[in-house]
Specification:
The complex is a heterodimer of chains A (326) and B (323). With 326 residues, chain A is of the alpha/beta class. Chain A is built from nine helices and twelve strands. In chain A, a hairpin with a 2-residue loop joins strand 9 and strand 10. In chain B, the strands form two sheets. An eight-stranded mixed sheet of chain B has the order 6-7-8-3-9-10-12-11, sandwiched between helices. Chain B is built from twelve helices and twelve strands. Classes of the chains: A alpha/beta (326), B alpha/beta (323).
Chain lengths: 326, 323
């Protein structure tokens, strides 16, 4: 079987360069995303994994330029289709959002308007981002999208409270994909759903991605979910990416000690010796010096507490930020 | 044979009334549930998805809700009697761990107070020094440094630390039974392992039994001796942990197990789950609650509900496939 890295070189749809997103506070800046660089290739599912507080949701907001005060973008570039999104005007950005760049925020299934019918909400969203579209056309699109996600058409006439969590999440997916965006950023799209429904939603995302030739950035804390659908994965820790690689390689041979720990701490049936990672996650107000993982790392040396290891390409397509590999 | 069980639920049901006037209806959150925790040092995992009634069962055991019918016995005595007559003693022996480590703390008090109030209320220490050493020891035993957490406010601690303070509190009390409702769902994966490890240690070294309530079979398998699977308020399967996981009997348990993502890109799901049937709800109100979702549904299943039946090997399942 050919290795993923050996395939034809893929072209980069999104290039994020040294992106920094901070939050202002009276104690100083919270450096939630602190210099992150990666590429997302066309038609892949690019996963971003990490634990709560590592900055993965903030990173999504940074890419889409949806950071709200007290948050601000402190530097970097987000090149999408050869255009730096951070340099666009609000108006220019508005034209790209939803038509080219869709976002499924965390918990969005609970953000449906309770007093509007599903159809009205979908049509509103479509017309809002695609003003040239007629009402009827938008309505038709809404119906066809509902059937794309496997919902019966009568859902269009229902209100959110009549739907289950999984159905609401599918309405959100149907709306986000209505204008056939090139890139979809999905932040924890299956948390708070039951396992069987979660499986259905993940499979749906993968199926629609193939069908529409989309690119997906899939953000989740759940390593097992990544293993099921991702092509490549980036591991975040303390506002930085510590490792990037193909999903097979990262699971087969995790390089960064944090990635190793994350994979080892997944509870699996029949495995009674799951290990955790000692210590607790550091505060974004005051990241540790040197490698940010060094206080919890069993391999830490003197150098790790002083010099911050950069994210470097080790072999074709495998990046790691760790002194062990330098 | 007739040894007194630590905790026993006998035909427990709980109904909620919702709506008003003409739209009034009752929802059966828990339907005729019977099970027992036989003894000390025993863990039962209660597994179910949202709406399966698992939290309602926890609340009834803790005396926060009254069953509509049936009875709950703790060491042979009805718990409403326990709570009426020996409330303090009951809570000394039966302690909860809740899902959200953020909401159980009063934000204006320091961590010290939570532990001191516990010590005072349950009269665990006679002198101040005794109390101090009790608290210090409990914190150290759960892997926290007393100087790091004492004097601080709940918001200054991480979710994992807060959950561990709950464990320290439990350690001070040394109850016989812990009722843990989704205790790890809000803590990070890397910290879950040590939390589960502690619960297992409590069970194995101190003989504390545990009712572990979760939607997550993986974490349950780490601790449980027996697994009980709930679906829409009914027990659909009960059996020894290894058996249920390696050879699930009920079609729902089978679906649940095959849907848990395996953390290995080489073992990906093959067939597509049919979301349309998943969320369908039986309109009939009779028959097996799993009927509409069941791949093996038969005519009979739509007409009558199967009872939980004990098989030859002692496992229990409520499904006509095994009648």
């Amino acid at each position: 079987m050919p290795e993923r890295e050996d395939r034809v070189p893929m072209s980069s749809l999104l290039h994020v360069e040294e992106l920094k997103v901070y939050y202002k506070s009276v104690w100083g800046d919270y450096k939630a995303v602190d210099g992150v660089t990666f590429d997302v290739f066309e038609k892949e599912i690019f996963s971003i994994a990490g634990e709560s507080g590592c900055g993965k949701s903030t990173l999504a907001e940074g890419i889409l330029r949806l950071v709200k005060p007290p948050g601000f973008i402190a530097g970097g570039q987000v090149i999408f289709n050869n255009v730096d999104l951070l340099k666009l005007s609000e108006e220019e950005l508005r034209k790209i959002r939803w038509t080219k760049l869709a976002y499924i925020p965390q918990g969005s299934m609970n953000s449906l308007n309770p007093v509007l019918k599903i159809k009205e909400q979908m049509v509103d969203a479509i017309v809002d981002h695609c003003p040239e579209m007629e009402q009827e056309e938008a309505e038709e699109l809404a119906y066809s999208m509902l059937s794309e996600v496997g919902l019966p058409v009568d859902v269009a006439e229902m209100y959110p409270h009549q739907l289950s969590g999984g159905m609401k999440q599918r309405v959100i997916i149907a709306t986000a994909l209505a204008l056939k965006p090139q890139l979809v950023v999905a932040d924890e799209p299956t948390t708070a759903l039951d396992v069987v429904v979660q499986r259905g939603i993940l499979q749906l995302i993968k199926m629609l991605k193939e069908k529409y030739d989309m690119t997906v950035i899939f953000i989740s804390h759940d390593m097992a979910a990544h293993a099921q659908i991702a092509d490549r994965i980036a591991i975040m820790y303390a506002g930085k990416i510590v490792e990037i690689g193909s999903i097979e390689k990262v699971f087969e041979e995790p390089l960064h000690p944090y990635t190793r720990g994350l994979i080892d701490s997944i509870p699996t049936i029949g495995r009674r010796n799951i290990k955790g990672i000692p210590g607790v996650a550091p505060s974004p107000l005051n990241w540790p010096t040197g490698c940010r993982f060094h206080p919890r790392c069993i391999f830490a040396t003197e150098a790790c507490s002083k010099i911050e290891p950069p994210l470097e390409e080790l072999e074709n397509g495998r990046y790691v930020a760790c002194h062990l590999y330098r | 044979m007739n040894e007194q069980a630590l905790l026993e639920l006998r035909n427990v049901s709980k109904e909620y009334r919702v709506g008003a006037l003409l739209l009034k209806r009752t929802i059966r959150a828990v339907n005729n549930v019977t099970f027992k925790i036989p003894r000390e040092a025993y863990a039962i995992a209660l597994i179910g998805e949202s709406g399966s009634g698992k939290t309602t069962i926890a609340k009834m055991i803790l005396g926060l809700l009254k069953p509509t019918s049936g009875e709950i016995l703790y060491r042979g005595r009805n718990i409403s009697e326990w709570i009426r007559k020996n409330k303090l003693e009951y809570y000394r022996e039966v302690q909860p761990i809740f899902q959200d480590p953020y909401s159980v703390y009063n934000p204006v008090y320091r961590i010290d107070r939570i532990l001191k109030v516990t010590a005072k209320k349950f009269k665990l220490a006679k002198t101040k020094e005794e109390m101090r050493s009790l608290i210090t020891k409990a914190l150290e035993d759960v892997g926290l440094r007393p100087e790091d957490v004492l004097g601080r406010y709940p918001h200054q601690l991480s979710g994992g630390e807060r959950q561990r303070i709950m464990l320290a509190r439990i350690l001070m009390l040394k109850p016989r039974l812990i009722v843990a409702d989704e205790p790890v769902s809000m803590i990070d994966v890397s910290l879950r392992a040590s939390f589960l490890e502690k619960l297992r240690e409590f069970k194995e070294k101190m003989g504390i039994s545990c009712l572990y309530i979760s939607h997550d079979l993986h974490s349950a398998s780490y601790l449980a001796d027996t697994i009980i699977v709930l679906y829409r308020g009914c027990i659909v399967e009960e059996g020894p942990m290894e058996k249920v996981l390696s050879e699930p009997l009920h079609p729902y348990t089978q679906q649940l197990l095959s849907s848990i993502p395996i953390p290995d890109p080489k073992q990906r799901w093959k067939e597509q789950v049919n979301l349309a049937t998943l969320e369908a709800v039986s309109a009939l109100g009779r028959g097996c609650p799993f009927y509409v979702r069941c791949p093996h549904a038969m005519e009979r299943c739509s007409q009558e509900a199967p009872q939980l039946k004990e098989l030859e090997d002692g496992r229990k399942v409520s499904c006509f496939l095994y009648y």
